Amino acid sequence: xxxxxxxxxxxxxxxxxxxxxxxxxxxxxxxxxxxxxxxxxxxxxxxxxxxxxxxxxxxxxxxxxxxxxxxxxxxxxxxxxxxxxxxxxxxxxxxxxxxxxxxxxxxxxxxxxxxxxxxxxxxxxxxxxxxxxxxxxxxxxxxxxxxxxxxxxxxxxxxxxxxxxxxxxxxxxxxxxxxxxxxxxxxxxxxxxxxxxxxxxxxxxxxxxxxxxxxxxxxxxxxxxxxxxxxxxxxxxxxxxxxxxxxxxxxxxxxxxxxxxxxxxxxxxxxxxxxxxxxxxxxxxxxxxxxxxxxxxxxxxx
Length: 302
What we know:
Elements: E1 16-19, H1 23-34, E2 39-42, H2 50-54, E3 58-59, H3 63-69, E4 72-75, H4 80-88, H5 93-96, E5 102-105, H6 111-124, E6 127-130, E7 133-134, H7 136-141, E8 145-150, H8 153-166, E9 167-174, H9 178-206, H10 211-218, H11 226-237, H12 246-262, H13 268-282, H14 294-301
Parallel strand pairs: 1-2, 1-4, 2-3, 4-5, 5-6, 8-9
Antiparallel strand pairs: 7-8
């Protein structure tokens, strides 16, 4: 158990530092501001935080400055290497955070790295939670994210009010790394589900059916899923704008394959999805939405 100075995330006693104001982070930090919390932000590109600053957030000139002042530090950034540098680097969070602070990494990252960060944080008197999210840009915007948490139960209880401002399905899954492992389960399921949606729509088109009519019918039956009902129409309409970018899913699937292989687990659907998404990366479509996988199937229908 880690002692913390956070008073159950009371807005009057809890200053939040938020790092990463991209598609997801911008909305998430906005909900914390709307909840009455003082929020200080830091991002590689200040312009991406302009909207939050206009709403009352303050800007930190450096990661170290933010870490030194915050009671709760939240990160949602890019890749495991970014997480490692942000938390463990000489100018990072753990080198500068005050004793009793709580740090929450909401990036999808490596479970092993989450364990390493939690252990390092414990030595510094900082409770570190891994709390990746699912729900995409819509879930972040509507404060309906699923938040999967690993780490100290006392710290979790203290920051639960913050999680509740950002999501509506929040669970502590176990010790450090458990949140990341749960998120990898999520990504593994999503990857094969998107392939299934693409294949079903390919079959519908080849059979001469109206794909949108098919989606309407099967979307309320046993085939129903968020991927089918949200991404299926976008595939049909050729809308490949990102809610969740391919390059980020490819990163997540790579971590999932590494972790599963270390467990001696063979997951052929996961490997096939990674192969198909890697193909889209070679076509420079990494910043398209994950539904752009349908382009691979459209080529076979041509």
